[in-house]
Automatic annotation (TrEMBL):
Single GO MF annotation: hydrolase activity
PANTHER family: GDSL-LIKE LIPASE/ACYLHYDROLASE, PUTATIVE (AFU_ORTHOLOGUE AFUA_2G00820)-RELATED (PTHR43784), GDSL-LIKE LIPASE_ACYLHYDROLASE, PUTATIVE (AFU_ORTHOLOGUE AFUA_2G00820)-RELATED (PTHR43784:SF2)
Sequence intervals crossing the membrane: none
Record lineage: Bacteria, Bacillati, Actinomycetota, Actinomycetes, Kitasatosporales
Listed name of the protein: SGNH/GDSL hydrolase family protein
Organism: Streptomyces longisporus
Keyword RNA-binding tagged: no
Amino acid sequence: MTTGGPSFDNQTIRMVVHSSVGGSGARITLSNRYSSAPLDVGEMDVAVQADGGEATRGTIRNVTFAGSRHPTIPAGAEAVSDVVPIPVRAGENLLVSLYVPGATGMSTWHSDAFDTTYIASGNHTGDDSATAFGTTTTSWYYLAGLDVLSSTARGTVVAFGDSITDGYHSSTGTYTRWPDFLARRLGAGPGPQRLSVVDAGIGGNRVLTDVPNLWQGVSALKRFRHDALGQPGVKDVILFEGINDIGNNAGPDGRPLTAQDLVAGYRTLIDQAHAAHVHVIGATLMPDEGNGYYTPAAEAIRQSVNRWIRTSGTFDGVIDFDRTMRDPANPAALNPAYDSGDHIHPNDAGMKAMADAIDLRLLHS
């Protein structure tokens, strides 16, 4: 979640959430972490999605927080709901409908959801139909997480990164981000599914510094403990971030970036994870020749950082996205078969290739 979202007033926000694992109940996390005013929840419910913003008849369940259907979440805080008794299948979509009765001020949001959100005037939380929801966006508002109570899953893998992890240029509403493909691989293995997947990517995000565009988030150094280590059941974090630091030449304290700066940032995050008894798997940074980020100096930093990721032994494991995704004829560029067209973000086929490159034995269940 980040700051800088739009304000709402007497509106219902119906959002789609895609589950990576099945279970018998769910909890919803609402975040007011990056807002300056309290959030008054008029009403909230969850249902199984039928199609678009339409709920499957008979599946709507009220959501309560410590028994209350009308909580107020202070500025800077989050609230986790009581368990909602609703069956959830792996790969199934739920609709979370949030009614805000008054003016919210700037919302806490996730700008690039790559899914459709439906907005209506007034309170339409109990509607099976989507008729009242006349406006759509592709962002989530206040909705920070879905926890599924599973009888088989024993832990969570957090995919932590920037726009490539967030799913930029993947097809909207098709769940073709690389963490989605990873979740499907984990579910397709022999025996019951042991691991769920959380996507903690933010478009434009950097390791070392906050991004001037508010919706691209505070630095990984600031958000890692909450966004990665704070996830329920976290066992492993796949750390795949740094290309925005390199492409913007954004070193600490406003100075030019060095490879050593980025390595120091990685070491800090690894130390935080190990202190929390969480494994960190490092992913090499993918090529971007042809994109505006590319310069010979930036490429030298990327190559140096990737060498350190591969050879230092500091990470608990390594995923070599660079080797998987580069053009065999030009290793400084993405493979054209995987290029969405901007020479830095993969297309859907590229997202699948990334997930397929992950050795599942690296993950701890």
